[in-house]
Amino acid sequence: MARPRTFDEQTVLDAAVRQFRAGGYAGTSLDDISAATGLGRGSLYASFGDKHTVFIKALTEYVRQALVDTRAMLDGPDDSAIDRLHTWIVSGAGFVLDDDEHFGCMAGKFAVEVAETDQEAKALILGVFSQQQQILLDCVTAAQRHGDLAADANGCALACMILALNRGMDVMAKGGVARAALDAAAEQAFRGLPLTAAYRDRPARA
Amino acid sequence: MARPRTFDEQTVLDAAVRQFRAGGYAGTSLDDISAATGLGRGSLYASFGDKHTVFIKALTEYVRQALVDTRAMLDGPDDSAIDRLHTWIVSGAGFVLDDDEHFGCMAGKFAVEVAETDQEAKALILGVFSQQQQILLDCVTAAQRHGDLAADANGCALACMILALNRGMDVMAKGGVARAALDAAAEQAFRGLPLTAAYRDRPARA
DNA sequence: ACGGTTCTGTACTGAGTCGTCAAGAACTCG
DNA sequence: CGAGTTCTTGACGACTCAGTACAGAACCGT
User: Fold this and answer.
1) Would you tell me which residues have their CB within 7 A of strand C?
2) pLDDT of A206 strictly over 60
3) H or E segment to which residue B64 belongs
4) What are the entry keywords (chains A, B) (predicted)?
5) Chain A residues with CB-CB distance to B89 below 8 A
6) Contacts of B59 in chain A (CB under 8 A)
């Protein structure tokens, strides 16, 4: 029938995500993406549309992957829910600093750069924030069921607070605040959760 | 001697701050600043240097003003230190949403956009974060002296945590998370501070 | 009033960017 | 092998932007 494509759509999308995460929206040209993927500009336009469309597709792909990752970290049995929360909170700084390329949350980045003027992007960003809050809420509720968090605590507020803290650690890590200070802050935040006496008295784990 | 300037340097700097805060570094052209100030580009270059220099000067001016504002909110007598901390924490969302132009923290914005590649900006941003942490620490220490916060709490970690939360609320507000949710999260965070029994039992204020 | 100095506005250059287009390449079906 | 279809490439035009240059305007001391 016709000439087949020589590129993998997912590969191009991943490259676009990397470029936008690294350079921002205004700071990334289609030539950058073209160079990163080896694809000519014509092919890019034919397959993905204009710059904004490429951006929205890349952001959508990031959101999809981010939610998969978030669930992988937070979903699980009730008895270890509080530990998963602890890990999530404490890994806040690492989300930026451990990454080879010092990325960080793309949703946070574009919430700051373009949400004000790009309603389509803003909707995607709000979506991922909301769903991450929901995943956190599920984990908080699990910890409450297991008796590690106070049953009368406001789970929604806790989830929102934890996510905000995570986003803030991201920003501060990018601003150069020392890893040790952020880790200590994260531990402090965890101790500020409404932990039950049962949690504090539980036997230490391996 | 010579022709005097028709513009006020501070006015131009303020306009530059506004433009960069609104549009980001890559998204703001010198024409934008020129238009916003009514000043020709030639005068801009003669007085402020190239784009990056203008940006650094604008960021420096923002940092100066931000520290003045932070001190105005947090400095004060020991007996109301805990209230000032409460106000600061709870005003996190308002920092974006109450502002007429929905700005938010310029340091946070550029930590995300340019800190990775612009060491000069990164140093300024780290400076404002560090000093804000110090101001918060002073306020925390004051609250400890007055017996509202546990004396054995790690003030540095608390200060860093509170600042991270503030930055994160900023990001989430820009991402469209509802004001009510952020306010509830802020209240939750405040309750997570190591408040003393003396604070909880104190008589309600006007 | 006048000369010297500084400021202002605008036009220009060179580079980069977006989006399009047309010509050629690769593949499949008949 | 040929026709038709789809993909790829590179170039092109219009535009924007950063930074410079130059001519003229405004001012002050003498």
Assistant:
1) A 1-4, 28-32, 41-42, 45, 50-52; B 1-7, 38-43, 46-47
2) no
3) helix B51-74
4) DNA-binding, Transcription, Transcription regulation
5) none
6) none
Measured between CB atoms, which of B122, B164, B188 is closest to A158? Answer: B188
Name the fold adopted by A59-194. Answer: Tetracycline Repressor; domain 2 (1.10.357)
Q: How far is the CA of A182 from the C1' of C23 (A)?
A: 58
pTM of the prediction? 0.94
pLDDT at B206: 46
Whether A15 shows a pLDDT value over 70: the answer reads: yes
> HEC states along A27-63?
CCCHHHHHHHHCCCHHHHHHHHCCHHHHHHHHHHHHH
Interface with chain A: mutation pick from B161, B190, B191, highest number of A CBs within 10 Å: B161
Q: Which amino acid is at A32?
A: D
- Per-residue pLDDT band at A55 (split at 50, 70, 90): very high
* CA distances for B205 relative to B141, B199, B201, B202, angstroms: 22, 12, 12, 9
Nearest to A105 by CA among A80, A132, A81, A76: A132
Protein-to-nucleotide distance from the CA of A41 to the C1' of C21, whole angstroms:
12
Distance between CA atoms of A111 and B56, rounded to whole angstroms?
A: 23
Model pLDDT for residues B31-67, shown as the tens digit of each residue: 999 999 888 888 899 889 999 999 999 999 999 999 9
Partner residue opposite A189 with nearest CB, options B125, B129, B161: B161
Identity of the residue in A122, A168, A194 whose CB atom sits nearest the CB atom of B166: A168
pLDDT tens readout for residues B131-168: 999 999 999 999 999 999 999 999 999 999 999 999 99
CA distance B204 to B206: 7
> What is the distance between the alpha carbons of residues B157 and B76, in angstroms, rounded to a whole number?
21
Q: Which nucleotide lies nearest residue A45, CA to C1'? A: C19
For domain B59-199, the CATH superfamily is Tetracycline Repressor, domain 2 (1.10.357.10)
Give the pLDDT confidence score for residue B5 in this predicted structure: 77
